[in-house]
Design goal:
The complex is a heterodimer of chains A (about 575) and B (about 90). Helices cover about 75% and strands about 5% of the residues of chain A. Chain A has about 575 residues and is mostly helical. In chain A, a hairpin with a 2-residue loop joins strand 1 and strand 2. Chain B starts with 17 loop residues before the first helix and ends in a 9-residue tail after the last strand. The chains are: A mainly alpha (about 575), B mainly alpha (about 90). At the A-B interface, helix 11, helix 16, helix 20 and strand 3 of A face helix 1, helix 2, helix 3 and strand 1 of B.
Chain lengths: ~575, ~90
Amino acid sequence: MAALLDLLINNPAIILTIGAAVTLVAPRHLASPILLVFTAASAVKLYSLGLGEYGAITLFGEQLTTVRLDMTSRLFAVVFHIAAALNIIYGWGTRDRGQNFATLAYPAAALGGVMAGDLITLFIWWEIAAITSVLLVWAPGTRATYISGMRYLSIQILSGVLLLAGIVLLYRETNSFVFAEIGLRDADGAIKLSALFMFIAFGIKAAFPLLHNWVQDAYPKSTINGTIILSIFTTKLAVYSLVRGFPGQTELVYIGAVMTIFPIFFALIENDLRKVLTYSINNQVGFMVCAIGLGAINGAVGYAFGNIIFEGLLFMALGAAMYRTGTSKATELGGLYKTMPMTMVLCIIGALSISAFPGTLGFVVKGMIIEGAAGFNLWIWLTLLFASAGVLEHAGIKIPYFTFFAHDSGKRPKDAPLGMLVAMVLGAAMCLGFGVYPDPLYALLPDQEAVAKYHAYSAYHIVEQLQLLLWAVLAFAVLVLCKWYPAEVPSTNLDTDWLYRVPGRSFITWASGASRATWISLWGIFTGRLQAVMARIYSVHGPEGQMSRSWPIGFMALWTAILLAFVLVLSLRA
Amino acid sequence: MSDHKPNPDEKPGWADTPGFRKVFLGVLIVSAIAAALAGLNPAWKNPKAHFEVEAFFAFFAFWGFACFMFIVLVGQHLRKLVGRKEDYYEERE
C-alpha cells in the first residue's frame, strides 16, 4: 500500500490527474484555482524529483519505469506545465465540469507519456490522452462536434492500436519494453514491421502528410479554450516519441520538409483563422520532424518548446477576438485594433516570434534547425527557408492582419477579459524574454555540446534572417498595394478528410446497406430451407405421418425372426 | 456574416490614416534595403557557409521576396481546385 502511494505521489502526471478529478466533485467556481494549485504542486514535484528514473513497478514479470526524467523528457515536462498553467489562467472561471476535467487530465496524459520509461506506460498514457482530449472536441455539445469528435477518436484509437501492435512485435524481437531508440530498419537495411507500426502510430499523432487532417477537422470545432489546449499536447507528445524512437531517421527529413510546405497553401486560402492556425501546427511540427531526421535534436525539442509558447499565444489572441466577436472568420473580422489594442500588441508579439524575427524566441530556436538543414543538403535547406517565408505569410501576417486590421468589420468589442490578458502577457513575456536571454532555455536542451557551438545572435544569422523576413514583408506590401493579395472568401476547402467524410461515408453507407440486404437474403434462404425440412419431418413424424402409425404384429414378428437369424449366422461363423 | 457596419462618421483609426501607412512603408523599405546592404559587410557573412548561393549579394532577401510572391500568387489558385461552398459538409453529414 505504501509502495502504491509512493508510486502515485511521485508521478507529476498522477498529481495532475488527481487535480482534474477533484474538479468533478468540487464546487464549479473553485475549479480554476484547484487546477492551478495542482499544476503548481505537480511542477514542484517535477523540480524536486530531478533527473533520474522513478516509479519502478513489475507487471507480469516485466520491469516498468513509470517516470523517467532525462534532459529530453524534462524539457517537455517543463513546457507542458507552463502551457497547462497558461491555459488555466486563460480560461479562468470556466464552469463546464467536462472541460475543466480535460483541461488538466489531457495535459496530465501527455506529461505521463513524455515521462514514460517503457512502452507499456507510454501506451497507457497515449490512450488516456486520446480519450481525455476528445472531451474538449465534444465540449460545445453540437451534432457537428459530436460527429467530428467520433472521427477524431477513431483516428486516435487507430494510432493506439498500431502502437500496441508495434510494442508486441518489438517485445518479440528484443524481449524488452524499454522505450529507447527503435530505428526503422534492421542491420540489413530492411524495414522492421514492429518499427513501422510504431512509426505510423507516432506519425498519425504528429499529423504526417495525408494523416494530418484530423487536426483541421477536430481542433477548430472545440471551444475557444479547448482549441488552445488541443493545439499543444497531442502533436508534441508525438514529436517527443519520434525524438526518443527515431532520432536521425533520414525519412523524417523528407516527411518533415513536406509537412512544412503543403499547409502553407491551405492556410493561404482558408477563411477560418482558427483553421489557419491548425495548418500552422502541421507546418510547425514539420520543422520539428525535419529536425529529428536531421539529428538536430536540440532544434527539434527547442522548437517544440518555443512553438508551444508562441503558437499558443496566437491561438489565445485569436480566441480573445472570437470571445468578443463570436467569430474567427477573416471575412467577419478586421479593424479590431481600435478597441482591442492590448490583444493586438500581444498577437503581433506572437506573430513576430513564430516568424522568427531577431529578439524573439522563434529566432533562437529556428536557427538550430536551419543550421542542421544546411549541413544536410541544399534542397532541404532551401525548402525550410521557403517554409519560413510561408510561416510569415499565414501566421506572422495573416492572423494579426485579418483579425485586427484589413477591412473594418465595424465591430467595436472591448479588449480581452483579464484572465485572457494575463495569460497572453505571460506568453508574450516568454516570447521576448527567451528571445533576448535564451540561456535558461539552452540549459534545458539535451545536447549541451551542440549548445556550446550554437550562437543565435551571430551577426550573419541576424542579417540573413532580417533579409529573408523583411523582404518577404515587402512582398506582402507590394501584393496589397497592387491588390494582388487574394481577398478572403467564405468557403470550405477540401482536404484529405474529404476522402472519409464523403466517398468514405458513402462507401460505409453502401457497405452497411449491402451487408444488411445480404443478411436478409441469407436468412430468408436459411429459414425457407429450415421450414421445408420441418415440414418434411412433420409429414413423416407428425400425427398423420408414416412413423406415427402402429406397426402390424406380423410385420414385427417377421423383423424379429430376421434379426435372430442374423445373430445365429454370426454366432455360427464365430 | 456580420451585420455590423463601420460608422462613416467615425474618425479613422491610427492604422487607417495615410500618414501611418506612408511611415510604415517607408520604414519597411529603408530597413529592407539596409538589411540587404548589411550583407555586403564581409564581417557579417557566414564564415562557414555551406553553399555557394549564400555568397550571392542579398541572396536571403531575394529568396524571401520570391518565396512570398510564389506562395501568394500561385497558392491562391488552389482555391479553384479545393474550394467549395461554406456548408459543403453540413449538407452531407
